Amino acid sequence: MPDGTAPEEVRRGDPPADTIFAPATPPGRSGIAVIRLSGPRAREAVEALAGGPLPVHGRALRILRDETGEPLDEALILTFAEGRSFTGEETAEIQGHGSPAAVAAILGALGRQRGLRLAAPGEFAQRALAHGRLDLARIEGLSALLEAETEAQRRQAMRVFQGALGKRAEDWRERLLQAAALTEAMIDFAEEDIPEALPEIARLCGEIAGELEAEARGARLAERLREGFEVAIVGPPNAGKSTLLNRLAGREAALVSDVAGTTRDVIELRMVLDGMPVTLLDTAGLRETADSVERMGGERARARAAAADLRVHLVLPDGPRPAEGPDDIVLRAQADRLAGEGPGISGLTGEGVEALVAEIARRLSARTAALGAGLTARHAHAMAEGAAALREAEALARAGAAPELAGEALRRALAALDALVGRVGTEDILGAIFQRFCIGK
Amino acid sequence: MFHVKQPEGSDFDVVVVGGGHAGTEAAHAAARLGARTALVTLKADAIGTMSCNPAIGGLGKGHLVREVDAMDGVMGRAADAAGIQFRLLNRSKGPAVQGPRTQADRRLYREAVQAMTRACAGLTVIEGEAADLILEGGRAAGLRLADGSAIRARAVVLTTGTFLNGVIHVGDRSRPGGRLGEPPSKALADRLYGLGLPMGRLKTGTPPRLDGRTIAWDRLEMQPGDEDPVMLSFLSEGPVVPQIACGITRTNSVTHAIIRDNLHRSAMYGGHIAGVGPRYCPSIEDKVVRFADKDSHQVFLEPEGLDDDTVYPNGISTSLPAEVQEAYVRSIAGLERAVITQPGYAIEYDYVDPRALTPALALKALPGLFLAGQINGTTGYEEAAAQGLVAGLNAAREAKGEGPVEFSRATSYIGVMIDDLVSRGVSEPYRMFTSRAEFRLSLRADNADQRLTPAAREWGLVGEARWAAFAAKMEALEAARSDLRARRFTARRLHAAGLNLAPDGETRDGLGVLALADAGWEHLAALDPTLVLPAPWVQAQLRREAQYAQYLDRQARDAEALKREEARRLPPDLDYAAIPGLSFELRQKLERLRPATLRHAAQIDGMTPAALLLLAARLKAREAA
Fold this sequence. Notes:
The structure holds two protein chains of two kinds. Chain A is an alpha/beta fold.
């Protein structure tokens, strides 16, 4: 999801009649990049770049120029009249060449125009909803389509929606309410014969905090499942890493997106293995230059490979053998022409490729077994926040300190749990729902 | 200004029905705003009567009294004039949860309220029975009395307490009635029913009253008031009448056996009462049944006045027959010879579902009509008084053609209470607790004036005397604050002075030193001989403020978020039927409850995020249109 700028504040403070714009395609080099505008000045804004009138509802090919007359890109412009667009507002699309520099220049030129601003995440969908162009069922459908890339993600999402997380949270919440009730009773019913409950409060808080901390770790794992596992292919130059990557990329239906060229240091290849999102990292060519900038890049690439979930090592017969940990798969490189011991692989002939894919899938699947009920980084964050507040309450209760401060900590813990299952203020719910949409989608 | 009757057609801005705690504050608030105000009550000499326990304030309730007082209300000053035993509850805990409370002499309290009412300019008391509302052009336009006379007004405030279809139960006998000995106003109830308002039924109980001369005080544990009494009103200096002690005794297994054996004769357990009672103020029958493992419950013996022998035994309210009451009372230590002067009874009554009200306490279904007090499902003098003030304030503003004033949860307990009432309704008599306030650390009894007096002054609620006193107080506090802000204390010196902090920590200003848990003014004075100590009350107030300083930033952020949510208003004329995708059930609920804000809508039972999204989208579309 591309980054928005302080979306909540932006959305809340602005008059409704402003015009928003955002790239609708992912960043990076691609065949076409689309920038979308919506609002009363959508067409006018593009006309300013195109240097002349555009049809109210139609298409045109134009050279776009900035304020100084400098050409930015040649683009196909689509215009949609008010009431006949996705958002219901006047809308325009700029389909330009997928050069990051050209896209950045066009966005900059738009951003300098009065009455235009970058859209907050989900704002196009929100406007579509507000104008009755999209009903909620379709928004939710869209959201699921956009988000569930792989089968494993879908399964985990179903676990959440079927209530695994809800049940856990409900249980925590119930015990937390007990602790809060004991605390509040000491405060609000001081005149009644209320027993001293501080040890009990401390015990409850400590227990729930421990469980939340464990679940937060599980949720972080789930976040990996959402964001993708990283598998690094490492080995000396000419070991056949790129050939292997190309072979893997050529597997039917394996390719999700190719974001090569985003960095000079590492080539990334997104693919789906056994229902799990996997990003393959190729560190090819790093040692072929003595250039100092390249060397720094090499350091970064090695760090990235070291941090990856799995490493596939291609070794040559006379080369050094890597230290083999549980996250390492060691293969004999260029098996088509070099003989030797142990399993081999060849990107050229495809020998051993299916076995490698199966091995990667097997190892990653084993990890997803440790998944908890949580799904996202947001869940992990809420659990960690809840746990921290509970630890504070526990310490206060043990110290026998002011119960109103323990009560305050418990209140924050409850708020964190409520945020976990979506039982929060309407602003938060709405903001969270709309933020599920990437800018421009 | 007590008047017996006004001539037909006499004109008022605001007419208030009921002379209880809600009615009194409502009438006074309206009159303070300059509205020509009439207070209609059955008996003028019953104004300010405490019909239940003889005490004002307490936990959460003390906060409400202070807030009413901060806006120049009646209750705090009347309680201080009548206070015979002042105690600051939760004294050992933090200032945020301390609640000032006093036992009040019933007669003195009544007299104090009546004296203030007589002295209130623009307020006319009319003795009579409210029979019906006058409606005009779909608005409440006044009141018709039982004798046929009419009082016309631009706004009407109803504070009729438990008078709506009230039924009194003593054991298996029951009869219609409001407070004991007063007739219920059935006709007015019929009018409210005619409006088709959502209603519910609640019950509440009272204990038997005892003759104090028949209690063996010398054998009881006695609880005196505080050494340094904390007053209810910001304007009071100290107690003005002699102070007394209360007695403490306990029920025992014999008491409980008597109650268990006679449960079937209790109005509540005999199935005579349909209303729901409060969980937190259970009858003695309830306590014995629900807490069967406890063989003893505390009973406070509270004298009702200095020259009144009546004693209120707090903790044994009941609806058992009179002879059973006598039997169990006499089983209690110290009460063996006690004489019951008036048996305890339970009262059942109707209330208007407060979700039918706006946050200004106006009835959505009938413009010009405001409701306050027990009629809205609350219990307690303090809750009633606070609502009365809000209703009176808004009724007067309405009469002047000004917009409503609303109280936020972020700045007052009054805001918390009203928000709870109008957004969630009640399922038992609603009583204030400190735990209801999510901004509890900021909403303290000690800073109610700092939170509310300036705004109340703007609205016209605060008179010259209080404003001058408040200004002087703020000046003294600010002078001391800025003095402390200007002084620096290194962590090393503070550590050397024996305070619990790391010697290599940051240098603090004087306020920062007071924020340390174990620091006090004596440390400041010892470390900085140039410091001139301010008045003790200033020292105490700044120490209280500093104690929570580190929590207040977070609460302020949360309060900001809340205020943004409170600002997302749903227009009262929103056409829910025109929103596609809303389920039929939710649409019905929304049409019936007409929540004031999106946040209130979110609190409706069965509300879904999807439906909220639809509402938010509709709001956005309306804003854009």
